[in-house]
Amino acid sequence: MEPPTAPNSHAMESIATSNRTPCSRRRASSSSAPYETPASSSSTLSPESVASSSAPSSEREPHTEINTISNTNEVVLTKKICPYCDFEFKTFQNGRRHVFQAHGLRDLPAKAMSGFRPLVYNSSNLAKYTNQGKTIVVKFACISCPMAFEEKAELARHVDCQHVFPTNMSMDELPAGDHWLIGDEDMTLKFYDYRCMCLDTIRSATPMTLHTQFNELLAVSGILVLQRRNYYESLPVDTFGPGLLQAARASVLARFDHSLFDHAVQSKIQVILSNYVEDEWSGTKTRLELLTLCEAPSTNAGSRSVLLAIEGLLAFLPAKIAHCSNLIPDDLEHTANRPDYKVGVYASSGYGFAYTNAFGEVKRSPDISPTLLVKDFYRLCRFAKDAIDQHNLANVLTFQAVGSVITFFVMSLLSPHVYTMTEVKRIRLPTKKSDALDLVGHLGDLLFVADLFRNHCIPSLKDLKAWTCPTLSPLFLEDTTLSPRKRPFDLTLDN
Ligand SMILES: [Zn+2]
Ligand SMILES: [Zn+2]
């Protein structure tokens, strides 16, 4: 594969804003109360961590020290494990270094242990306290404060809410320059304000559900979803009116070149597919003709990508969808899951992995619950954002295939703390031979996606570090239950 080249320069509107007011809280429901950890499952570790009080656990106050609250026969051993992956560390300093290096989280505060040391979960302590007849309670220790938790998801939630995302987010957190302007509207400021509200919502005790609140959950990680349709139920319409979102989506898409599909090649494809549909040519002959056209000197790089895509698709007709699989070993170790599809780019100087610039999620049946689809979509957002953050990519292409419909999205970090996840094209693939000619109608769309991928999903010339913001941990979400559908689904993935 070719070495990464610089992206086309985009005319990014920027201002040096003088608006440094504290973030406003527009919604009464967005409580700014500090996040409270459930009393039954967290505790502040104390010297020796051996319990001595007889008060029942249900009466525990949050943040109380555990040696004052339970019986003397109980001993708490703390595990030193990363909140976001299974990495175990020996010292909290190493833990914070790991979180910085592996998960890109900067400036986590050092642990204040106020002079005592918790008992560590290890084989010698296990043996020692088991021999003493103690009941051993295992907890996960926070890397930045004296608290510990029974569930790892709670630890992740705590670290996110208390240490990763500023507890008092103000406009001062936002870099002043390079704001994204749509007409008179400062999208960067607006979105930041919205993020502050979402963070408050997340900190409040109300459990959030992914499928009804995915916009809020994504916004906390700095991701703004721009769908083709203009009605967004879970985005506040007073802040993001339909007209503004439509203009925002158009503004993102305008950054990508839009070449027309070569007319001569299009005519040839039409002839080839007609012969196939009319049973004049076999599937093999058809594919050979497409590949021959692909190799013709007059065929440009964009048309070539589209021809290869069509050739690949014909190999699987009749079928529900094109075949996708895990092609490349995981490079994003900390991600709890992996996408169904990803494209790895390898440096031309050798065989070293460079970056992943495309991800896909595939559901073969169109009859999938909206909850699962939105979960897939959320995962795609996370994979794409991780790739941008880790490899300084200008854009990342993603697609979600549901039955025979493929929706392409592009994620772009185009302003401080604003990652747009923009719907690019939606294409219904033919599932039977007689519909193969439908592909001719999609050539322009396929070319747009191919050009976007080849020309724009590459490392940025600009160092984007200052524009990045933290991502809500995946474990945090395991806490948010996937409840049954209660109101219309926000993310439309079918026509
Ligand atoms: Zn980790
Ligand atoms: Zn903590």
From TrEMBL:
Superkingdom per UniProt: Eukaryota
GO molecular function ontology, one term from the record: zinc ion binding
Domain C2H2-type: 140-163
Signal peptide: none
Region called Disordered, residue ranges: 1-67
UniProt keyword annotations, A-Z: Metal-binding, Zinc, Zinc-finger
Annotated Low complexity bias: 29-57
UniProt-recorded name of the protein: C2H2-type domain-containing protein
Organism: Hesseltinella vesiculosa
